[in-house]
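Appendix C: a fully annotated inverse folding record. The material below is reproduced so that readers can follow the format used throughout the book. The structure is listed first as tokens, followed by the designed sequence.
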């Protein structure tokens, strides 16, 4: 098996904080590896080191020579003056370089260079690069290719960056949280795309279904060390627990030995004999070992929520639209006591707007919410992360409450509560600005939960949270004695927590399904929706989905649609013939230049006609 990446004895620290301590691993051809660790333990840093965006203290990082590598950062950036399509060309990969050189050769009328470039462009499939970009952007629901990058939301920008790395068809793909800001439809498409890929993959993700289905090996960073598990997520859980059990058993033994040796040390006179020196050295080594050990607490926290009455809330005839975008239409719902509801659906279908109307932050166009008097909301929102970076972590929590009531006379201090959510005593006294993005999200979650709400509303709580934190949160919610609404694209999280789901299908269509998301997907697949006409064209080589138009075709449009159906195959055949002629290499410089210009015009014309066909096909 060909090795694509080899890391040996890699060390990385930030000041006095050690992230990676002499870690070694390798990735081979077509291997799909998931990287997991608590937030702040160096996952994103390791990816940046591999891609050359971050330095390190010692060790080696070697990528195979001439390897095509593409990487997705957790928070990507592009120059503000670019359009969406130009951002997809904002890359230093080989194909983009070839396209730029090709355009320059045509502009400078350089037939000799043009002939060399044609062979390379055929080899790398560069002719269809722009079309591939549009197809992938459309799959990720980015349809305005001329929109400026600086006008995009954070989620849209992440999707453009994802398209940028996918269209380059690399040998080695490095992805940092690729499912953030994707809806369920996009996640499932990306899942199939990556599973079918012939590239190597190193990926950080919190989506456990996604991890389980895409990766066949998992690497864990724990206590500055690296552990490899040759299996999927379920296998990782099993073997990780075995490792922790063995470590805790070893730690118990070390503590017992340390107590005995400490007693011996205290009994010895100040001037010890030379023969005891080896035992003294062994004592100090044991002391260092104990201080470096991390105990993985498996405590379950039974939390007492505030009292909540029988009346929770009623949604009565709720309607809401923004311009022509209808989100809710005469929606009625009565929420039950202790209900755990999941809300799923594609982006832009009204999930977050529904929550904001329930909380009174947005007013419905008509209808009203009747909320019970005992309801105390705790709201974790996508936009709610705001802290004073100069405060310490522990002070953020103490400003809200010094302790949390667990019921039955039991209480936990703010510090103990933070430890439950994986903030060590040392981390609690860090300033907020030193936390990673995921650690800040975890701290924000703590500020919501410590207020003892009896109705929790969590809007995309899994974004930027690591898998270890998600397990802790799931344990917390399993014992939460109150009401719960979760808006999430994390299928595993939804399946584990909720009793039933509301599916927001768009255009005001909301389905109440009595089960979790996986059960809903199984039910949906048993239905037989009519196959849309555009599905036929999707099987063509060039395909760009368009926004659905519910108007019917006019007579003129029907005739245009029929003509396009005849013209597109002719144009595709003409393009293929030109590509064959250009690939033979026996054309004169004048013929070479003429046919190169012709194929560029033909590709543009074919794109226009294909897009028009797709637009009309939505009206059939």
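Designed amino acids, in order:
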């Amino acid at each position: 098996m060909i090795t694509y990446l080899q890391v040996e004895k890699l060390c990385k620290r930030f000041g006095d904080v050690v992230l990676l301590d002499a870690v070694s691993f390798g990735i081979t051809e077509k291997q799909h590896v998931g990287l997991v660790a608590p937030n702040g333990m160096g996952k994103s840093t390791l990816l940046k080191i591999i891609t050359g965006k971050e330095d390190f203290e010692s060790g080696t990082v070697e990528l195979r020579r001439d390897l095509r590598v593409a990487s997705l950062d957790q928070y990507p950036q592009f120059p503000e003056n670019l359009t969406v399509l130009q951002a997809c060309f904002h890359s230093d990969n080989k194909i983009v370089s070839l396209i730029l050189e090709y355009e320059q050769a045509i502009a400078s009328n350089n037939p000799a260079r043009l002939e060399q470039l044609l062979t390379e462009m055929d080899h790398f499939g560069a002719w269809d690069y722009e079309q591939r970009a549009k197809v992938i952007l459309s799959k990720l629901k980015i349809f305005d290719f001329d929109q400026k990058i600086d006008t995009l939301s954070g989620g849209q920008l992440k999707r453009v960056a994802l398209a940028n790395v996918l269209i380059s068809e690399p040998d080695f793909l490095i992805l940092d949280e690729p499912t953030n800001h994707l809806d369920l439809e996009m996640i499932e498409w990306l899942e199939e795309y990556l599973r079918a890929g012939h590239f190597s993959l190193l990926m950080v993700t919190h989506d456990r279904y996604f991890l389980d289905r895409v990766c066949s090996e998992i690497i864990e960073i724990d206590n500055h060390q690296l552990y490899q598990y040759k299996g999927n997520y379920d296998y990782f859980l099993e073997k990780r627990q075995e490792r922790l059990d063995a470590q805790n058993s070893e730690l118990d033994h070390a503590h017992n030995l340390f107590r005995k040796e400490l007693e011996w040390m205290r009994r010895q006179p100040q001037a010890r004999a030379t023969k005891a020196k080896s035992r003294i050295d062994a004592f100090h080594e044991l002391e260092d070992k104990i201080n470096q050990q991390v105990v993985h607490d498996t405590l379950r926290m039974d939390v007492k929520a505030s009292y909540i009455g029988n009346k929770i809330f009623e949604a009565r005839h709720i309607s809401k639209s923004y311009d022509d975008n209808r989100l809710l239409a005469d929606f009625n719902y009565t929420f039950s006591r202790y209900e755990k509801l999941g809300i799923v659906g594609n982006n832009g279908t009204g999930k977050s707007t529904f929550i904001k109307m329930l909380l009174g932050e947005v007013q419905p166009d008509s209808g009203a919410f009747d909320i019970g008097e005992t309801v105390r909301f705790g709201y974790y929102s996508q936009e709610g992360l705001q802290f004073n970076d100069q405060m310490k972590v522990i002070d953020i929590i103490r400003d809200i409450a010094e302790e949390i009531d667990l019921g039955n006379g039991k209480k936990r201090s703010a510090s103990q509560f933070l430890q439950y959510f994986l903030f060590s005593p040392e981390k609690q006294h860090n300033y907020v600005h030193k936390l990673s993005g995921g650690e800040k999200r975890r701290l924000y979650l703590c500020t919501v939960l410590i207020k003892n709400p009896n109705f929790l509303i969590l809007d995309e709580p899994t974004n930027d949270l690591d898998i270890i934190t998600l397990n802790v949160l799931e344990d917390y919610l399993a014992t939460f004695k109150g009401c719960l609404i979760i808006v999430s694209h994390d299928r595993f999280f939804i399946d584990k927590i909720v009793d039933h789901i509301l599916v927001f299908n768009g255009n005001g269509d909301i389905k109440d399904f009595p089960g979790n998301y996986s059960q809903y997907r199984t039910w949906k697949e048993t239905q037989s929706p009519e196959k849309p006409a555009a599905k036929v064209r999707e099987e063509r080589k060039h395909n760009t989905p368009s926004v659905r138009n519910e108007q019917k075709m006019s007579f003129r449009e029907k005739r245009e649609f029929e003509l396009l159906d005849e013209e597109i195959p002719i144009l595709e055949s003409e393009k293929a013939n030109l590509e064959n002629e250009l690939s033979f290499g026996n054309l004169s410089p004048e013929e070479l230049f003429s046919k190169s210009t012709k194929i560029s015009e033909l590709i543009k014309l074919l794109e226009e006609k294909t897009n028009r066909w797709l637009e009309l096909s939505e009206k059939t």
